[in-house]
Amino acid sequence: MALQSTTVEYFDQGTCLEGFFAHDDRASKPLPAVLIAHAWGGRDEFVCDKARELAGLGYAAFALDMYGNGVLGGSVAENSALMTPFMEDRILLQRRMTAALDAVRNQDPVNPHKVAAMGFCFGGLCVLDLARTGADLCGVVSFHGLLGAPGNTPGNTIKARVLVLHGHDDPMVPADDVRLLQDELTRAGSDWQFHVFGNTMHAFTNPVANDPGFGTVYQPLADTRSWQMMRSFFEECFEDR
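Structure (tokenized):
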């Protein structure tokens, strides 16, 4: 046997959520685990592929479902309609992320004390919000994520190490949000890093992103470099636990 993957049903106050769980059953157990939060379109094949890649690196990987029942958007309008309730109710967003964290900790091969999280675009905001709640995580990585603070977490201690990977020319993240997040992480006592890629827009890890007018453009160098940074970051986070 080798790579194993399955759909895992879990719940948030009656909403059935469908996570994609992958691990290599030849790896020594228990395994460190990585939660993966999707972009605004839902838990698509992009994040499932990331889960498979992480499983190949020796992690248990859980691509979570923010929307329920594996629902996917098929257009800008549909994606926006799916994401907006969570942007308007960050307590809901944080509760849904906590449900995913509980779900991955309950998977048989997972070391519940060694869990990290990563996310893309909207998912980057989701993992930052999970860290903002004070969740006991080894680390979180935001890939071209939205950065705005939720408003309900001032005064919390951020236990997780934080790595933010950001495109300098990302039109969806105001420059003030960068500074405000850095100040917020410092006040919260986080061990944080912030890496900015020049000549890089939003969605730089997504090979099908090709809409300069909308601000989403794949950048292969930033994609490769950010993945390498993530790997080093997770190795450090898990070694120290």
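DSSP finds six helices and ten strands in the chain. The two ends are 29 Å apart (CA to CA).
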